[in-house]
Amino acid sequence: MDYDLLLQGCCEAGRQLLRFGAEIQRAEDTVRRLLSAYGLEGEVFAIPNCLWASAAAPDGRVYTVMRRVPPSSVDIEGIERLNALSRRLCACPPADPGELLAQCRAEAEGVRRYPLWARLLGYLVGASFFALFFSGGWAEAVAAGLAGLACGACLTALDRMGANPFIATLASAFVLGGAAYGPGALGAPISLEITVAGGIMVLVPGLVFTNFMSDLLTGDMVAGLATFARAVLSAGAIALGAGAAMSLFRGLETVPAGAGTDYGPVWYCVFAFVACLGFCAPFNVQGAGALLCALGGALGWAAYLAAMGLGADIFVASLIAAVAVASWSEWMARVRRCPATSYLVIAMFPLVPGLTIYQAMEHGLRGDTDMFLETFFRTMGIAGCLALGLLLVSAGLGLLQRRPR
């Protein structure tokens, strides 16, 4: 058997998972399981943009493969299809290792995707309903939706051109800021704070921040620090781009931010559901999974509001909500036989501290050290509680599965 080609095929499965946005642990475990299916014990190590694998053949010769992972956006359908393929390959590994490599590449190329108009509509709907979620009115919802649409179009165009992720985020944040600040600065009766808050959800790296905390809590220091650096750079690009747009309209009259509208708990959950449903198209969640992901987002926010109503602070409420979302995601993953990541990515949107990451960077750029530190540590605390909630559910299920019968 050509063990070098076999190792390349196993690494291709892990590389594609990382490219589609799967967690580090899943990519590493997939490569190990594929090697085990061929009777080999391998060592696998991955970070967000690179994967290494090594295995010893029966004759004692050691083979090593390193694959670089190009930066790309999260693709839930891709994660689900590669995960399903790895299950099939582990159950019935092909005798020809070249067939393993070919199947991994063919599966990645055959991933279904929404048309461009559907993805742009998703950005518009997601940003609009997050503006309502942040207690804005319908004027803010329309303005935030148009800003999110402009930002999403810029982000999509630059992604297709292969632009550097930092530059793409910076430019998209500038477009978003101009679309959000412009109408308000010209006298439109909208709250700029709520408009920007809704539109900025298109870009916020809040889930990346939560993933970085999760990696650190599970002991994966290198991947955690790499993800942390990515999150900080993304937040900095958002703050720089939006701040540059804001400076263009600084001299114009703006409408003061109002207190916002109190819609009541049920409506906030509805807004969370529709906003999450909107973002299913950009993240390529196909079929009934989109409704289930959005339902998880509404469920998580309902748990958060219930905890706050019982007197919990923002950190305890975030922990409880994360446990609820993680439990829902793990349940759906077992029912539909797909990764829990598919549900977590969308369902965590209402909970992730994306807005406060942007606010922290904005305070830092303005030189307001006290507000920067306060917002930054609050962001880190929320991200840590969310990661802990996800880890508690995952670890608990792992213990149950390993319990002696």
Question: Could you walk me through the main structural features you see in this protein, from its secondary elements to its overall organization?
Answer:
By secondary structure, the protein is mostly helical. The chain folds into two domains: 107 residues, no CATH class; 285 residues, no CATH class. A three-stranded antiparallel β-sheet has the order 1-2-3.
**Main structural class:** mainly alpha
Overall pLDDT metric: 83
Radius of gyration: 22 Å
Can you count the helices? 16
Chain oligomer state: single chain
Neighbour order of strands in the largest sheet: 1-2-3
Shape: globular
Count of all domains: 2
Number of strands: 3
**What is the straight-line distance between the termini?**
39 Å
Quick overview of this protein structure:
The protein is mainly alpha-helical. It has 16 helices and three strands.
Secondary-structure topology with pairs:
Elements: H1 3-19, H2 24-37, E1 42-47, E2 50-56, E3 62-68, H3 76-91, H4 97-109, H5 116-133, H6 138-160, H7 165-185, H8 192-199, H9 206-217, H10 221-248, H11 265-279, H12 289-309, H13 314-336, H14 341-347, H15 354-366, H16 369-401
Helix pairs in contact: 1-2, 1-3, 1-4, 2-3, 3-4, 5-6, 5-8, 5-11, 6-7, 6-8, 7-8, 7-10, 9-10, 9-16, 10-15, 11-12, 12-13, 12-14, 13-14, 13-16, 15-16
